[in-house]
Design brief:
This protein is an alpha+beta fold. It is built from 16 helices and 11 strands.
């Protein structure tokens, strides 16, 4: 009786949060235009707080690299914080932090994205820095050598010296074999080590151009001032030749299992990484995919947790997620074995749940609950000025239409039980997958 009340209360709490979040959410109103040099600009006014976010989305990621020179896109994420013609080395952080703002950047297979969040009266500073970095970056020996060391250290911390650190590189090489997604954005350290300055200059000249970027300004600003500032700072750059794009055909289908056992001296517990080919972010099944992964692994009431962690106590952690890129995705299940249990036990338990999913499908109640979770998350991720700026940039880049931010939730709500079941059967019926077993080993 107590357990039933707890579950019912949790469902009521979820529904309450969803309704409350929906009440705060309004469609994102924006204007957009393109400068003669090709820079696409999106402006969204939000005067609820005196802050402004700028997002500059460059259409270059690791997929655009020469396979013999991986890591260039991520390297430039770091190099762009070096000197420009008018900004001294190591000054960009100081300028933004000194103005009371925040800054960061990230690289994916598809894009390199930079952002600032500053007080409203500092929006011109943020735009000036981005304009400087777009075409005035100093790609020289000092900056390149400094960032070589930074990137190598990052790779050591995130991959080489981390528990299970190489799983994603191995998984991507298998699941995305034959495509430009077959390597991670961090790249191979040796490629960056041997690359010469002219190669970095060529990469910068090719991809860091106004016609290869989307600029979003979101927050408390005067649109006339911002438009004038953008024209002044960015408008003088000429349009460049369109950069080359990799040809992207669908990934080579995985046939059967590709298995590997890795002795890992950094791991404390055995871990399993099981990856299938999933769906990309532009695939119509992407919405059903998110519903599916919520049902399988979102929280302690999810299928995988209830069965494998709670009931069987085979694993201490289990999750499922779809790693979606523009043209492809990988559906991965991760399981960390409980003390005294083997990875064979974990794999058998996960397989049993996947087989139950494929043979029996999902229920209407599960789909409704997953939709409620997705709606609550979605609304929560559209409230801040940075979140909205990022969403607008992504919608324009990957969906070809910034207004997709205002219709995306409807597509989630339209997902049916049959669509989720059909997708699960398509992806998981056969054991066409990469399976990695990480075993703790003495160093």
């Amino acid at each position: 009786m107590i357990a039933r009340y707890t579950k019912y209360g949790a469902l009521l709490a979820l529904l309450f949060l969803t309704v409350a979040a929906r009440a705060q959410y309004k469609p994102i109103v924006f204007t957009e235009y393109t400068l003669p040099n090709g820079l696409h600009v999106i402006l969204h006014e939000d005067h609820s707080a005196p802050v402004v976010a700028t997002v500059l989305h460059y259409k270059v990621g690791s997929r655009d690299e020469d396979p013999r020179r991986t890591g260039f896109a991520h390297f430039f994420e770091h190099l762009m914080f070096e000197a420009t013609d008018k900004i001294d080395r190591a000054s960009i952080d100081k300028l933004i932090n000194g103005a009371g703002g925040q800054l960061n950047a990230f690289t994916s297979q598809d894009a390199t994205v930079y952002h600032f969040v500053v007080p409203s009266n500092e929006v011109r500073l943020a735009l000036w820095i981005e304009a400087q970095r777009m075409r005035k970056l100093q790609v020289n020996e000092i900056g390149v050598e400094t960032q070589r060391g930074v990137v190598k250290e990052e790779r050591k911390n995130r991959y080489d010296n981390a528990p299970y650190g190489g799983w994603m590189e191995k998984q991507m090489a298998t699941v995305f074999a034959g495509t430009p997604y077959a390597w991670t954005p961090i790249g191979t350290a040796q490629h960056i080590d041997v690359a010469a300055i002219p190669e970095f200059v060529q990469f910068y000249t090719t991809y860091y151009q106004p016609n290869n970027a989307i600029l979003v300004v979101s927050g408390d600003f005067d649109p006339a001032v911002v438009r004038s500032t953008i024209e002044t700072y960015f408008g003088g750059y000429p349009r460049a030749a369109e950069p080359p794009r990799p040809s992207f055909t669908s990934s080579k289908p995985l046939i059967g299992e590709q298995r590997e056992v890795i002795q890992d001296p950094k791991a404390q517990l055995p871990a399993l990484f099981m990856s299938y080919q999933g769906v990309g972010m532009t695939d119509p099944d992407m919405f059903a995919m998110d519903v599916l992964t919520e049902i399988m692994s979102s929280g302690e009431s999810s299928r995988l947790y209830r069965s494998i962690v709670d009931s069987q106590q085979t694993a201490v952690q289990v999750s499922m997620f779809n790693y979606a890129r523009e043209y492809a995705g990988s559906l991965t299940v991760v399981g960390i074995a409980a003390p005294g249990r083997s990875l064979d036990d974990v794999e058998a338990a996960i397989d049993a749940e996947l087989e139950r999913l494929v043979s029996g499908g999902v229920t209407e109640a599960e789909v409704s609950k997953a939709k409620a979770i997705i709606e609550s998350k979605f609304v929560g991720q559209r409230l801040g000025v940075y979140d909205k700026a990022l969403a607008l940039a992504d919608a324009k880049r990957f969906m070809g239409d910034a207004s997709h931010v205002n219709t995306e939730l409807e597509k989630y709500m339209a997902v049916t039980k049959d669509a989720v079941t059909k997708l699960a059967k398509r992806l998981l019926s056969a054991k066409n997958r990469s399976v990695l077993h990480y075993i703790p080993a003495k160093g």
